[in-house]
Design goal:
By secondary structure, the protein is mainly alpha-helical. Helices cover 54% and strands 7% of the residues. The chain contains eleven helices and six strands. Strand 3 and strand 4 form a beta hairpin. Helix 1 crosses helix 11, helix 3 crosses helix 4 and helix 6 crosses helix 7.
């Protein structure tokens, strides 16, 4: 097995990274998640759609939307209307139920999904993840051309996987993964290099989480944000973001099997 993502830091490094992550970012995620869970577990047309639209808009603004070189958000009533769409609700619910632990890789680095996962076919997952990101780009933003903000929205609602903003991409680059420098424009399909990077990432993360689950959980539970143990995708988002700090111990790295441990 080559170039697999490994945890090279300690549980203390994980705890430190989580605690040092900006508190307002933690609060934004927790606020949206609490409302998103109610939205996802209720009928699509419920009042929770209005609450989620407002919370999502606020968090995305706090995370950089509507600033220079960032996409503009649609008005909250338009976002609410989109979230009330039954089909979008069903797709977001299914992705929220897709545990990161259901993603894995075999010795030949072929991607695998648990047979009992909501999405258990790799090709179907590729199509769905790129499709939902395209949908979120259209219904939440105006003239959006990058995957960054739709991925932030998906992270906020489902907690499934990190958002490829500049900090997370730099963290992946420091980990030894090529292809994450520069803006990540929307891929047309999963065969494009940009599409493959998005589709493959949760499999590397899921494999890494399973390999080192005890250390990850220990690091989270010893932090000030214990609830993150339920959203490993967000944990990786934070760790990769913080790994971009050159003064911080490296936490995650892509290593060949012969280099490990």
């Amino acid at each position: 097995m080559k170039n697999m993502l490994r945890l090279v830091g300690s549980s203390l490094d994980i705890t430190s990274a989580i605690n040092d992550f900006r508190l307002s970012y933690h609060q934004d995620f927790a606020n949206v998640q609490s409302i998103a869970r109610r939205y996802l577990n209720s009928p699509s047309g419920s009042a929770n759609a209005a609450l989620l639209a407002q919370a999502l808009s606020t968090a995305l603004r706090n995370w950089g939307a509507c600033r220079r070189r960032s996409p503009m958000l649609r008005p909250v009533p338009q976002i609410e209307s989109a979230l009330k769409n039954k089909r979008l609700h069903e797709r977001l619910l299914r992705l929220s139920q897709q545990s990161l632990a259901s993603f894995s890789l075999n010795l030949q680095e072929h991607r695998l999904l648990d047979s009992d996962a909501p999405l258990n076919d790799v090709g179907a997952f590729d199509q769905e993840i790129l499709g939902i990101l395209n949908t979120l780009a259209e219904v939440l933003f105006i003239n959006n051309t990058s995957v960054t903000y739709p991925m932030k929205a998906l992270l906020l609602i489902t907690g499934l996987m990190p958002a490829l903003d500049s900090q997370v991409r730099a963290g992946l680059t420091r980990a030894g993964k090529a292809g994450f420098t520069g803006q990540q424009l929307f891929p047309m399909n999963s065969q494009q290099a940009a599409g493959r990077r998005i589709c493959e990432l949760p499999f590397y993360l899921g494999h890494c989480w399973t390999l080192h689950r005890e250390v990850f959980v220990k690091g989270v539970l010893e932090s000030k944000h214990k609830g993150l143990q339920d959203t490993p995708g967000r944990v990786f988002d934070i760790l990769l973001f913080m790994q971009n700090q050159a003064t911080r111990n490296q936490i995650l790295a892509f290593k060949a099997e012969r280099e490990w441990p």
